[in-house]
Predict the 3D structure of the following.
Amino acid sequence: MTAKTKQLMLVCCTLLLANCTWRKADYGKWETYGGNTDNNHYSSLKQIDTTNVKRLQVTWIYHTRDADTLNHSQIQCNPIIADGILYGTSPKMKLFAVDAATGKEKWMFNPFDSLSGDKKLFFILNNCRGITYWSDGKQDKRIFYSAGSYLYSINAETGKPVNSFGEHGTIDLHNGLDRDVHDLFVTATSPGVIYKDMIIMGTRVDEGPAAAPGHIRAYDVRTGKLRWIFHTIPHPGEFGYRTWDDTAAYNHIGGANAWSGLTIDQKRGILFVPTGSASFDFYGGKRTGADLFADCLIGLDANTGKRLWHFQDVHHDVWDHDFSSPPVLVTVHRNGKAIDAVAITTKTGYVFVFNRATGESLFPIKEERVPQQTELAGEKLWPTQPIPLAPKPFVRQLLTENDLNKLLPDSSYNEVKKRFASYKKSHLFEPPSKEGTIVFPGFDGGAEWGGPSYDPQTGILYVNANEMANVLTITELKNEPGKNELFIDAGKRLYQNNCMACHGTERQGGGNYPSLLHVDKKYNEQQFYQLVSSGRRMMPAFKQLSEEEKQAIASFILNIHTLQTKPFKSEPQKKVDPYAILPYSITGYNLFLSKEGLPAINPPWGTLTAIDLNSGRFVWRDTLGDYPYYAAKGIHTGSENYGSSILTRGGLLFIAATRDGHLRAFNKRTGKLLWQATLPYPAFATPATYTADGKQYIVIACGGGKLGTRSGDAYVAFALP
């Protein structure tokens, strides 16, 4: 037998195995976030295909009627469809049900109406990337979703809370964390997953020093009773406890939370948990050690919550390089054998692929030495980081002077070049610094929360990614009040310690964080106090601050002259954990931009890549989206993108996600753009596809709001005429 014949037989066997594996699953519905329990964003529907996709047209538009244009509200929800009903969420966290064929509203639930007293006062207006459907197969049908700090159980047919679940249909996510966190920020931006008669939840917590732990919890789907908990910051005697030099870390360190979502292997009963970094994100002097289970992919026994295996992709993270999306269940073919695996993409541009049952990597991983020198007192960086040898990174990871934006005018280019020379930038894991460290891919770089898509027929993984650089600059904090301190001085100090990391040194904002300049035009004093106490979307609550401290911050941000010159002598009303008092913070989530606000590096700034997971090789790679300034000049640059793609058996990849406000369809085999439509508002969400009355639909939530775009309130459905 010739070598060529052997290779042909191997290819045929691989395709046959792939086809058999694909036929085991039902991918014809969209009842689950990400399309199905494999979370692969794949649909077996094929009525819309490469030959007719150009004929797609808008069939219906549903408006939720509550976009907040002043505050750049968003919709990040991937809707689900069950029994001919489409369920989604609005910018202000209302849950709705519409007829999937017509978009006609059936009911709407407003969580704010179900609250009273302090619960209403401290309601968080969070983002929601998806919801969860459960049915007993008979009459009991429920929607689970998180709004504010509460997990709701809603009757799917009536839109009313299920009173037998928790407390009148709700569970406070502050409770059951084995620690008192009632004053801290806790919500859930990604939906829970169903396993048997349980709903399993991750959370989003604050990323500053005063943060709740991100433990994983399973609740009885009918009653809301807590069934098990996995401590992502281990308690004494638990695996991983000794990876923290501070043995009391479980009592005061926060984070290590699964904010991006969970994936479950229903057949094996294995829950896959991707965790974020420990808090504070950018200084680890009070949490030295490897910090398990921060920045980990963890395989848990879904029945009990017991750890089966784990992999940590960043040891002692000080760059906010946490896992940014839930993993996807895949099947990799090696030497004629099918291996059930789990794949996860990262902010750094790597793809990791593991055997689901054992945690064994299917591609070699090498622990490489990384820079150690730091100027920050108390910091102790980890000496190595894991680097996969395949697949190769799907984004650039280092910048040189040759990567600076040559499309800029000469004066801007020279200014960018001068700044670039002053930054530290020699390594992907360059330590944070007071001079400024280039973080590339950026804080939202590489793969982000939308996650990848995977085609079970071909074994190809599709990743949309950002290639925008950030400048991480560390600054020292003044934690003690000055002598004869005035309200304005206290306000500046408290702003620096609590607000500057997100809103910048001059209140200018940056990245996904808004400017606070002229905010007195939007909020009066009382509204400002409520905002600081309750939080909003990306902003955590600051309930640990005393009323006088809130007044001091208000005097600075709102420019309240009558307060500014008064003596400030207040002490915090609540005892502050000394571990939450840090010597350093950052000057903001600052993008590396020119003086005109344009990206300082060469395009592309957004990409779409197809990767064969059987071989680890790229199939194709293209630029995704357009930056309006350059698009007007006829230059295709790509742009930041948030949301993910979906795949269909009709040979298509659908994706919105870009600031230019288009929904696009690509040939998934070649990457060729086949169709695009202009949406009423940009869509930073993942589409869904389904059938109703024999017709296939593509639907996308169009909420705008990110990247300075116009906010909206629309769900738009497309179909063939």
User: Anything to note?
Assistant: Residues 3-18 have pLDDT under 50 and may be disordered. The two ends are 53 Å apart (CA to CA).
